[in-house]
Fold this sequence. Notes:
heterodimer; A: 6-stranded mixed sheet; 5-stranded antiparallel sheet; globular; B: 7-stranded mixed sheet; 11 strands
Amino acid sequence: xxxxxxxxxxxxxxxxxxxxxxxxYSTTSDRLYWYRQDPGKSLESLFVLLSNGAVKQxxxxxxxxxxxxxxxxxxxxxxxxDLSATYFCAVDNQGGSEKLVFGKGTKLTVNP
Amino acid sequence: xxxxxxxxxxxxxxxxxxxxxxxxxxxxxxxxxWYRQDLGHGLRLIYYSAAADITDKGExxxxxxxxxxxxxxxxxxxxxxxxxxxxxxxxxxxxxTYEQYFGPGTxxxxx
Lengths: 112, 111
């Protein structure tokens, strides 16, 4: 059974600082997704990582995937208040069903 | 409207009542999904569908029923609502091998 663990679950950081969110998963998969959710809103797709070594960047966020270590990271550079949100990673469960298993999410608060 | 929509957006119902949550997508995506989101649990898959007339259980299917007679619609029915089904429900869709696109969600309260 595929399990996905994110850490930390809560992250409070100051503007201008860097930090990394980790996403570990338990069984083989070569597709991983990162989503953002603002309070009371739906999930918005951030990154799609489809192969080992994949790296994607958008603004102050950079995501990477190491399928051998079963690990993805979401790195935040020089955080700003607008990045405050909950970030989820989701891993494809394989088997051709397109099912995803989500981590519990990391609630990020960026303080001025 | 293009995209994926859910209705109602908010619903309050009583224990034991039947409730149907609607999901409609305009992209003709093959796959559709229902999730519930609860504090401390993240998103959990209730049911999914690979195409019209093909559905299967997810992680937490008990107490829920789905159907998919048309590609664009994927209603979720709570046959006899319980307080434990108070949650935020998200519908999502995807074409093959791509990220899932989420609807705006339905906040359901069972009293």
